[in-house]
């Protein structure tokens, strides 16, 4: 089952906050992603959760008092269940399709995310965390023995059905995740 929600979140922090609320409500293993929604006057971020369990009712409870678009796809259904304002339903539908195809999305939770702590050789990080590929930003080579300092925070992306963690060089001859837990907004000091 895939449940996608577009609450019109204007940034990743707001979308992550919504995802954490949803994850807490379902208490089930999920794959949770954020999805950039463009093509209208206000680009924004939608979210999706994929699970083998039926999560529709607990999710509906969390979003009941919010202005959201919903797209719920169930195994074997011929069409998704859609609800909410049309602009937000469109974003939820886009997120549901991306989640189903595994083509795009920033991954917030997935089976194995809880194992991404400390400094690990790249091969061990992939095995422990279910990461399919480590991609060095700017062509930085990543071999099986390359040390990755997870900084206890991983945010891979989905690309062609694979989990890809982007990494960058850091002090001490290690690589670190490209997306850091506490991002500084561009030009925040101006």
Order of helices and strands: EHEEHEEHEEHEEEEE
Poorly predicted runs are none
Q: Tell me, what's the shape? A: elongated
Radius of gyration: 17 Å
Note the total helix count.
4
Spatially, the strands of the biggest sheet line up as: 5-4-1-3-2-6
What fraction, in percent, of the residue positions are helical? 10-25%
Structural class: alpha+beta
Mean pLDDT over the full residue set = 91
**Portion in strands:** 25-35%
Organism: Kribbella hippodromi
Protein name: Universal stress protein
List keywords for this structure.
alpha+beta; 4 helices; elongated; single chain; six-stranded antiparallel beta sheet; 190 residues
Ordered list of secondary-structure elements with their pairings:
Elements lengths: L1 E8 L2 H15 L4 E7 L6 E7 L5 H8 L5 E5 L7 E3 L2 H16 L4 E4 L9 E3 H8 L3 E4 L10 E3 L7 E3 L2 E9 L3 E4 L13
Parallel strand pairs: 8-11
Antiparallel strand pairs: 1-3, 1-4, 2-3, 2-6, 4-5, 7-9, 10-11, 11-12
Protein name: Universal stress protein
How would you explain this protein's 3D organization?
With 190 residues, this protein is α+β, with helices and mostly antiparallel strands. The chain has four helices and twelve strands, in the order E-H-E-E-H-E-E-H-E-E-H-E-E-E-E-E. Strands 5-4-1-3-2-6 form a six-stranded antiparallel beta sheet. The model has no long low-confidence stretch (mean pLDDT 91).
